[in-house]
Design brief:
The chain has 186 residues and is α+β, with helices and mostly antiparallel strands. The chain contains five helices and nine strands; from the N terminus they run αββββαβββααββα. The radius of gyration is 26 Å and the shape is elongated.
Length: 186
């Protein structure tokens, strides 16, 4: 038989049902607070692709698309391309902000997205971002892997998925621009 220590002889710990109900109540409060806080955060999903629009068949564009998946409206201030923040701690490099190019398919910036709405923004692909990235130290394949794209909101940046075509295009642009710079120096 289990012996109770002398220091605990006068203490009544309650029955098992009371303990289980108090643990369940505590877990319910924690879950409710987590869900309430989670619903306040902006949720979005997006991608960055190369798109060719019908009016300009010979021109390719980098096209940002972001959809609001949250319960509240989402304010988008700008679209950007940047080097990964961890690398930027060691090598100072600015972000390329793409919020001043006018095209009929572009959403206005800044814009408010309601639940389920999609923001789209396109910028010309040719040499705009390749020029920005060409002087970054490192091989072109690594520079293209370090690039992140996204949109800025009052709650912080939302990063979008970059397609393989965009990464390949950026790498090729960096190679061409670096060759041109070397030829000009010679």
């Amino acid at each position: 038989m289990l012996e109770i220590p002398a220091c605990m002889e006068g203490i009544n710990c309650g029955d098992l049902g009371t303990w289980l109900s108090s643990i369940a109540s505590f877990a319910a409060v924690v879950a409710a607070l987590y869900l309430a806080r989670r619903s306040e955060k902006p949720r979005a999903k997006g991608d960055l692709n190369i798109v060719i629009f019908t009016p300009d068949l010979d021109r390719a564009f980098l096209c940002y698309r972001v959809s609001n998946l949250g319960t509240h409206s989402l304010r988008i201030n700008s679209a950007f391309l940047e080097i990964h923040p961890i690398v930027r701690r060691f090598v100072k490099w600015p972000s390329a902000v793409a919020n001043n190019w006018q095209h009929p398919t572009n959403s206005r910036l800044p814009t408010d997205l309601q639940r389920g709405e999609t923001f789209s923004y396109a910028a010309p692909e040719g040499n705009v971002f390749g020029q920005f990235l060409s002087e970054f130290p490192g091989p072109p394949w690594l520079v293209a892997r370090l690039v992140r794209a996204g949109v800025t909101t009052p709650w912080g940046s939302i990063y979008v998925k970059i397609s393989r075509d965009v990464r390949k295009s950026l790498r090729d642009e960096i190679i061409v621009i670096r060759r041109k710079i070397q030829e000009d120096r010679s």
